[in-house]
Task: structure prediction
Amino acid sequence: MARSICCVSLLCAVGLAGAQTTEMPTPEAFVEGETWEWRRVDALTKLEEGRSVRTVVKTDEGLAFSIDGKTRSIPLAAEHGAYNPSAKPWRVWPLAVGKRWDFEANWSRPDGVSGNTQQKAEVVAYEEVSVPAGQFMAYRLEYRGFFNTSRGTNGQQNDTYWYAPDVKANVKHIRSSGRPVWTTELMSYKKPAP
Result:
């Protein structure tokens, strides 16, 4: 009898660990001055392509993100990322291993190129990941699909993200299109003292 209870308890504990979920962070979860910095590295040359900084700022409407100098609402950024709002959002909350959805969005770049991305998304794991900013427990999300642009180019677009609830952000992102294209990693995360 004791052995049966022990086995059932163990199975429940394992089941709960696999059933972990995380909700979309609300604006109230952030603190003014909270800052993330990412670095993007070309997969072929291993050279740094650029850096991106996101800081929580106070606006007339409340807290928002300042991303490389452009202000964006926290819920909009959490659900749609860098993409334009869509009926098939970039991220569907809450996150849980095994969750799947379709993502589709139109987008435009500062150089005038516009396009569309369509991907099947799945949360495939909750695992530890190491980046220059440290080690984090993160959800690994895999997006598989295609893109097309206003310049007539199109092709495969696969993205793997590691989202860490402790820092409310992607800590790593790998883009590939048949071959690795680039990797973005969190370089630093700073939260002001209360």
User: Anything to note?
Assistant: The chain has one domain: 25-190. The domain at 25-190 is CATH 2.40.360.20 (YmcC-like fold). The first helix runs from residue 2 to 18.
